[in-house]
C-alpha cells in the first residue's frame, strides 16, 4: 500500500530536496520513537529540535502553542531581590483594605469590585516593588513608566496609596462618592483624580490599544529628538475576558512589526469574565499564546506555582502535561472549588499513568496544587516573568499569568461565577481572610457592624520598606504630573493669509486647514511639535505635499525605493518622520492622537496633534476613544473632513455624515465648530492654540468639521472674532426695497452658508424680502453658554445667553440651516426669542450630485426660500399665496 505520509500535500513539495533519502530517514526515526516510547516522547523530541534550531540560528518557524506549563522553569528563575516576607505583609494589608473599602461602600449601594484585585494582587505588588519607574526616575526623568491599570482592580491601587500615605481613610470612605469633591472615582479616571491616574482603562479594549500606541509614541518622541524615552516602559494590565474586545488585539501586529520591546502586557488569566468562564470549553491561555506569537510577540506563561514542581518532575510519561492541555477552563474552575476526592476521580482517574501519579500524592498536596497554587500568586514566579520581559529585546512581551479569581477571599468567593458581582464580605469572611493573611487585627475590631481599615502605622517596617522601594524606583506610582510648558504664539503670517480671502479662486475648507497646518509646521519654535495623523487618506485631504518635507514616521526609515521617487510629491518614510500615517485604522489613529494629546503630562512635552479623517468615521466609529480622550485631559485638533450629508458626492449612505456634531456635543471636553469660511478656520485654530498651549492652558480639545466643496473664500469682516469663537455673528445684512419690507434672519453653519447666501439673493430679487445672514460657527458652544446662563439664573445671577443677546432686535423669524440633521441647530432653539425653525438633512445619506441631494433633503437655496416665506406667512408678513407661488415656481 502507498505510504499515507507521502500522500499528504505539503508546501515543501514545490521546493527541491537535495537528499530525499535523508529526509525519509528523519521521518522514519520519528515514527520509530512514537511506536517505542509513545507520541508524547516523539512530540517532545520535535519541540526540543525546534528549540535547538532557533537557539543556534537555524531558520525555522516558531511554534504558536506550547505545553500548558510555565515558560520559565523553577531552576531558571533569577534570585528574588526583595524581602519576600515583608512584601507578603504589604500585600496582605492592601488586600484587606481593598476589600474593606468596597464592603464599606456597599452600605450606600455604590458598588465596587473585590475579586479582580484579589486575584491580581501579586501582579501589581511585584511591579510596584521592583519594576515600575516613577516620574523622578534618574533614567526616565519626568516620564517614568506608563501604567495602564485594569479598571476593576482600582480598589487595590487605592489601598496601596493609603498604605503609602497618599490617601486617608476619609478618601477610602468616599470611594465612588465624588459629588462632594473629595471622593475616589470608581475606576482610573484622570479627569476625576488628575494627580494619580494617567490613563482611563475601564472601557474595555481601549487600555490595550492605547498602551500599544503609547509605546509607539514614546519611540516617535525619541526618534524625532523631542525627548529621550528609551528607559520608559509601558505596562498594560488586562483581564483575559477583556481580550475578546476587538480593540484589545487590533494592534498586536503593529507592536510586533515595529519591535516595541518597551511594552509589556500582563494578562490576568483567572479564567473568568463577568458572567462565567472566559472559555468554558476551551483554553484561553493557549488561544492567547497562539494569537500573540503569531503577531510577533514574546510570550511568557506563568501558570503554576511551586507546588506543581514535584508533579511535573514525576510526569515521566507525559500524561500530566497531556491532561493539563486537554482539560477545558471551566473544569479547572470547578477543580478550584471541589474536594480532593473529586479531583482524584475526574482529573487523575482518566489515565492509568495519571492515576498512578495521583496515588503518590497526598491529599494536602493535591488541594494545594488545584485550589491555590498558581504562578500569578507567587512573587518569585511573577518577578521572573517581569525580569524576562524587560530584558527581552526586539519584540513586545505578553505575560500570561494564571490566577484564581477571588484568591484569599474565602470559599464563598474563590472561582465562583458570580464573584464579579459580589460587592461585600461578611465579618465572618473577614475573620477568615485575616487569619489566612496573618494580619494583626484583633477580634474586638471585628465585632461591630462595620469592618475597619487596617494600617501598620506610618513608621512601621512595612511602610518604610514600601517607600524605600518607591524612592529607589523614582517616586510614587501611578502618578500624573503636569509641568506646564507654554508654547510661543505662532506668527501672524499664516492667519493673515486666510483673513484676506481667496478672491475669485475656489478653495475647500478641508484644503484651508491642511494649508494652515502645513504653514504652522514651519514655525521655528512650535512647528516640530505638530503631529499630523491620518488614517491612509492623506491624498484625499490634499496632504501629500507634506510627505517629502515632513516625512512619514517609520522606525525602519525607508528600506525600499519608492515607486514615485522621481516625482516632486514622492512618498517618503523616515525614522524622524513627523506624519503618522496609520493605514486604514481610525481606532489606531485615535490612539495616536490620545498619546500625543496627553504628552504634556505623560512626558512633560506638549505636542499638537492634528488628526484629520472622513467625518463619518470619527465620532461614530471611535467615539468611545474620544470620550476617554476627554477623561485623559487630552489637547489637540480633531478634524472631520469631507463633512456634511450632501457635500460629499457619490459616496452614499455609510459615508454621508449628518450627525457627528451632535455626538461631539455630548462630550464636555470637546469644543465643536462648523466653520463656513477660511478666516473662521484661522480664528478658531489660533484661539485653540492659545487655550490649549498658552499660559492658562485648558484641558479641552477641538473638533472642526471642514468640507471638500471648493468655494470662493471672502475676506474677514471687521470685529467678528468674538462672534466666531462664541458661535454666532452676523455675516451681512440683507438689502430691503423699503423699510416696511418683510425681513427674515437666515442662520447657517459650514458649507450651508453658501446656500443661504443664494437664498438671500432670491428672496430679495424675486420676492421682495430682506434676509440677514448669520454664520453659526458652533451650535454646541452657543448651547453650553446658554445652559451656563440658565444655571446662573437659578443661583440668582442676571446673565443672558450670548445667542439671545446677539439676535436681540433682529426683525423677523429665524430660519437655521445646516448640512446636518435638524437636531444640530435645534440645540439653541429655546434661547432664541424670535420664531425659530430649522432645515436639515435628517435621514440616511444617498449618492447623487450635490444639487440633487440638497433638493432631496430640502436644503437647497430654493427650498430655503420657500421655508422662509412660509415662516413669514405664519407671522402674517407675506400672503399664503406667495408661498404657494414660490413652491410652484421652483418645482417643489
Give your account of this protein's structure.
The strands form five sheets. The protein has a six-stranded parallel beta sheet, sandwiched between helices. The chain is of the alpha/beta class and 892 residues long. Helix 28 (678-693) links the parallel strand 13 (670-673) and strand 14 (701-705). It has three domains: 84-305 and 374-473, Rossmann fold, CATH 3.40.50.970; 492-543 and 579-712, Rossmann fold (3-Layer(aba) Sandwich); 728-890, Rossmann fold (3-Layer(aba) Sandwich).
* DSSP, total strands: 20
The residue fraction in helices comes out at 40-55%
**Top-tier CATH class of the largest domain:** Alpha Beta
Give the terminus-to-terminus CA distance: 83 Å
Query: What CATH architecture label of the largest domain applies?
Result: 3-Layer(aba) Sandwich
Low-pLDDT stretches: none
Strand order across the largest sheet? 10-7-11-12-14-13
Mean pLDDT: 93
CATH fold-level name of the largest domain: Rossmann fold
What gyration radius follows from the Cα positions, in whole Å? Answer: 33 Å
Domain Transketolase N-terminal: 150-305
Domain Transketolase-like C-terminal: 727-860
Enzyme class: oxidoreductase
GO molecular function, one term: pyruvate dehydrogenase (acetyl-transferring) activity
Amino acid at each position: 500500500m502507498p505510504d499515507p505520509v507521502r500522500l499528504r500535500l505539503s508546501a515543501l513539495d514545490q521546493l527541491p530536496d537535495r537528499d530525499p533519502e535523508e529526509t525519509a530517514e528523519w521521518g522514519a526515526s520519528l515514527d520509530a520513537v512514537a511506536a517505542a516510547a509513545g507520541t508524547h516522547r516523539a512530540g517532545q523530541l520535535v519541540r526540543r529540535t525546534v528549540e535547538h534550531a532557533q537557539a543556534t540560528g537555524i531558520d525555522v518557524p516558531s511554534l504558536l502553542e506550547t505545553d500548558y506549563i510555565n515558560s520559565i522553569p523553577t531552576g531558571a528563575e533569577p534570585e528574588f531581590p526583595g524581602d519576600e516576607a515583608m512584601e507578603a505583609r504589604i500585600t496582605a494589608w492592601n488586600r484587606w483594605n481593598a476589600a474593606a473599602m468596597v464592603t464599606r461602600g456597599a452600605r450606600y449601594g455604590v458598588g465596587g469590585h473585590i475579586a479582580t484585585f484579589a486575584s491580581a494582587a501579586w501582579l501589581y505588588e511585584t511591579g510596584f516593588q521592583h519594576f515600575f519607574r516613577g516620574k523622578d526616575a534618574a533614567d526616565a526623568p519626568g516620564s517614568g513608566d506608563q501604567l495602564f491599570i485594569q479598571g476593576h482592580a482600582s480598589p487595590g491601587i487605592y489601598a496601596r496609596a493609603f498604605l503609602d500615605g497618599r490617601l486617608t481613610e476619609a478618601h477610602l470612605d468616599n470611594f465612588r462618592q465624588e459629588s462632594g469633591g473629595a471622593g475616589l472615582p470608581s475606576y482610573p479616571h484622570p479627569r476625576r483624580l488628575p494627580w494619580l491616574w494617567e490613563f482611563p482603562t475601564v472601557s474595555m479594549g481601549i487600555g490595550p490599544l492605547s498602551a500599544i500606541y503609547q509605546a509607539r509614541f514614546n519611540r516617535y518622541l525619541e526618534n524625532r529628538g523631542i525627548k529621550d524615552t528609551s528607559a520608559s516602559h509601558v505596562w498594560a494590565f488586562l483581564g483575559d475576558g477583556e481580550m475578546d474586545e476587538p480593540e484589545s488585539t487590533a494592534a498586536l501586529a503593529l507592536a510586533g512589526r515595529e519591535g516595541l520591546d518597551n511594552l509589556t502586557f500582563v494578562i490576568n488569566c483567572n479564567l473568568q469574565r463577568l458572567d462565567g468562564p472566559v472559555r468554558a470549553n476551551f483554553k484561553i491561555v493557549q488561544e492567547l499564546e497562539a494569537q500573540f506569537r503569531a503577531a510577533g510577540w514574546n510570550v511568557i506563561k506563568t501558570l503554576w506555582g511551586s507546588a506543581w514542581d514535584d508533579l511535573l518532575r514525576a510526569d515521566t510519561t507525559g500524561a500530566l502535561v497531556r491532561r493539563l492541555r486537554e482539560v477545558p477552563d471551566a473544569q479547572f474552575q470547578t477543580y478550584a472549588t471541589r474536594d480532593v476526592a473529586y479531583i482524584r476521580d475526574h482529573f487523575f482517574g482518566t489515565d492509568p499513568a495519571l492515576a498512578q501519579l495521583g496515588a503518590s500524592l497526598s491529599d494536602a498536596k493535591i488541594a494545594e496544587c488545584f485550589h491555590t497554587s498558581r504562578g500569578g500568586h507567587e512573587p518569585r514566579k511573577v518577578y521572573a516573568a517581569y525580569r524576562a520581559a524587560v530584558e527581552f529585546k526586539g519584540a513586545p512581551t505578553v505575560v500570561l499569568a494564571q490566577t484564581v479569581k477571588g484568591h484569599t477571599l474565602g470559599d464563598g468567593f474563590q472561582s465562583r461565577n458570580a464573584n464579579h458581582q459580589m460587592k461585600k464580605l461578611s465579618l465572618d469572611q473577614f475573620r477568615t481572610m485575616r487569619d489566612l493573611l496573618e494580619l494583626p487585627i484583633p477580634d474586638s475590631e471585628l465585632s461591630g457592624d462595620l469592618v475597619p481599615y487596617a494600617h501598620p502605622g506610618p513608621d512601621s517596617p512595612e511602610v518604610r520598606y514600601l517607600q524605600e522601594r518607591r524612592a529607589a524606583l523614582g517616586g510614587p506610582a501611578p502618578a500624573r504630573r503636569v509641568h506646564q510648558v507654554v508654547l510661543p504664539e505662532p506668527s501672524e503670517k499664516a492667519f493673515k493669509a486666510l483673513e484676506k480671502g481667496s478672491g475669485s479662486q475656489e478653495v475647500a475648507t478641508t484644503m484651508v486647514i491642511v494649508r494652515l497646518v502645513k504653514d504652522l509646521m514651519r514655525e521655528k519654535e512650535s512647528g516640530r511639535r505638530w503631529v499630523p495623523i491620518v488614517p491612509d487618506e492623506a491624498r484625499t485631504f490634499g496632504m501629500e505635499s507634506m510627505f517629502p518635507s515632513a516625512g512619514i514616521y517609520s522606525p525602519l526609515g525607508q528600506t525600499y525605493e519608492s515607486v514615485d521617487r522621481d516625482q516632486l510629491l514622492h512618498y517618503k518614510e523616515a525614522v524622524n518622520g513627523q506624519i503618522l500615517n496609520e493605514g486604514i485604522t481610525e481606532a489606531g489613529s485615535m490612539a495616536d492622537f490620545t498619546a500625543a494629546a496627553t504628552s504634556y503630562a505623560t512626558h512633560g512635552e506638549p505636542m499638537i496633534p492634528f488628526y484629520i479623517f472622513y467625518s463619518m468615521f470619527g465620532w461614530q466609529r471611535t467615539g468611545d476613544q474620544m470620550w476617554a480622550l476627554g477623561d485623559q485631559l487630552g489637547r489637540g485638533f480633531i478634524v472631520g473632513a469631507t463633512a456634511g450629508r450632501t457635500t460629499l458626492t457619490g459616496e452614499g449612505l455609510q459615508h454621508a455624515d449628518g450627525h457627528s456634531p451632535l455626538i461631539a456635543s455630548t462630550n464636555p471636553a470637546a469644543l465643536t465648530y462648523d466653520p463656513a469660511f477660511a478666516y473662521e478656520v484661522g480664528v478658531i485654530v489660533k484661539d485653540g492654540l492659545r487655550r490649549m498651549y498658552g499660559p492658562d492652558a485648558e484641558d479641552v480639545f477641538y473638533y472642526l468639521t471642514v468640507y471638500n466643496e471648493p468655494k470662493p473664500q471672502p475676506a474677514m469682516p471687521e470685529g467678528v472674532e468674538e462672534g466666531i469663537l462664541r458661535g454666532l455673528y452676523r455675516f451681512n445684512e440683507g438689502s430691503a426695497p423699503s423699510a416696511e419690507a418683510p425681513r427674515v434672519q437666515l442662520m447657517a453653519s459650514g458649507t450651508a452658508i453658501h446656500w443661504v447666501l443664494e437664498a438671500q439673493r432670491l428672496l430679495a430679487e424675486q420676492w421682495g424680502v430682506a434676509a440677514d445672514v448669520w454664520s453659526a460657527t458652533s451650535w454646541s458652544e452657543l448651547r453650553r453658554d446658554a445652559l451656563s446662563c440658565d444655571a446662573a439664573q437659578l443661583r440668582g445671577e442676571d446673565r443672558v445667553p450670548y445667542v439671545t443677546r446677539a439676535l436681540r432686535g433682529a426683525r423677523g423669524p429665524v430660519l437655521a440651516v445646516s448640512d446636518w440633521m435638524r437636531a444640530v441647530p435645534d440645540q439653541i432653539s429655546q434661547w432664541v426669542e424670535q420664531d425659530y425653525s430649522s432645515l436639515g438633512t435628517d435621514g440616511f445619506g444617498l449618492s447623487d450630485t450635490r444639487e440633487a441631494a440638497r433638493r432631496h433633503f430640502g436644503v437647497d437655496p430654493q427650498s430655503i426660500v420657500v421655508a422662509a416665506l412660509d415662516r413669514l406667512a405664519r407671522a402674517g408678513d407675506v400672503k399664503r399665496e406667495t408661498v404657494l407661488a414660490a413652491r410652484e415656481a421652483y418645482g417643489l
